[in-house]
Each structure stands twice: as structure tokens, then as C-alpha cells.
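Bench notes, afternoon.
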Amino acid sequence: MTIADIEREAGKRLDAFVDAAFAFAVTLLIIAGAEPLTSFADLGRALAHVPAFASGFALVTMFWAAHRGFGRLTSERGGAIGLISLAIVFTVLVYVFPLRLLTETGMGWMSGGRLPGAELIGSLDDLRGIFVAYGIGFGFLSLLFVLLNHCGRRHAHDEAARVALTAARDVWILCVGAGLVSAGLAASPLLAGMPWAPGFAYWLIPAGIGVYYGVKRRPKAAV
């Protein structure tokens, strides 16, 4: 077996470990809101948590898909890339807890109390703490993906892969900014008058992506 074969096998094992860690993170999302079922009424209350779980599941899946997409653009898994991947695993396993709390409270608020979760917020300080913890976690996790894609550019399969990694890095920079803006708004006095503002800060991501690709697709002026 050549050194290249050994490195390729190590890369596959790291990817398998990351995949398993994301699957465990999804399990934690369920466990965090799970209650023993003793009656049909308990089943109804458990099913009421499904929308919050679906939201959390979608976000965890987004990060997992981003790591899988990265893996298709480069085969390098050693050195800095391996360490960053392990840091992503650790952060995701911590991030699921503020994620679950935020999705529960968000669904409770958006449903006007029809879904469980609104009762988890007892004061403005509670709301501030939830948004700050989630924003910092989201921003830090996004920063790890910035570093992952930036480091991967040196080991891209080809020029097209390098371009894709560069674009992914830039998009994750937008995500870092949105997370920090959200946490900053939550920590500021503005929260009292605009309790919805930290959540709407994440709409900066699709807006920023639209502007980013709009600028990239704009034809360059002839010199």
C-alpha cells in the first residue's frame, strides 16, 4: 500500500467519523426535547415538538452537507484540515443545545402559543441569552467552515474545485457576519424594543448570497 493509499483511507475514516458525529447531533436534538410517553395525550404533546425538531434537523443537515460538499472538492484530510474537521464535530455537538432551545421558542412564538416553547422564555434576559448563545455558536461554526474551505483551496482537485471552494468560503464569511450581528443585536438595548431583530438578522445570509453571486456574474467592463 502506497502513502497515497494510506492517506486516502485515513481521509475516508475521518469523513465517516464526521458523518457519525452529525448523526449523533441529530439524536441529541431529539433527546433534548424527549419525554417518556405514558398516554395518547403524551403522544400528542411529543408530536407538537416535530416542527422545532424539523427546523433544527434542517440546520444540522446544512452543516453536514457543507462538509460533504467540501469532501468532493479535495481529498486532503490531514494537517489543518483534519483538525478543523474535528473542531467542527466538537462545536456541532455543543451547538445543538442552543439550537434546540431557539427552535422550540421560535416555533412557540410563531404559532402564537399553539406549539410548545414559548414558556421557555421567562424574561427579556432569557431571550437575550438564547440569541447570544446561538449567534456565537452559529458564527463560530461558520468560521470553522471558512477556515476549512480556505485551507482546502490549496488541495483542490482542479481549478473548478478551487473556484467552488473560494465561493463557499466567501458565503460562510457572510454566515459569520450574520451570527455576530444577531448576537450583537441581542446583547444591545435595542432588544427591548425589537425582540425580533436578532432572528431577522439571519436574513442577511440569503440577501448577501444574492448580492455576492449577482456581482460575480456581472460581466467585467472591457479595458
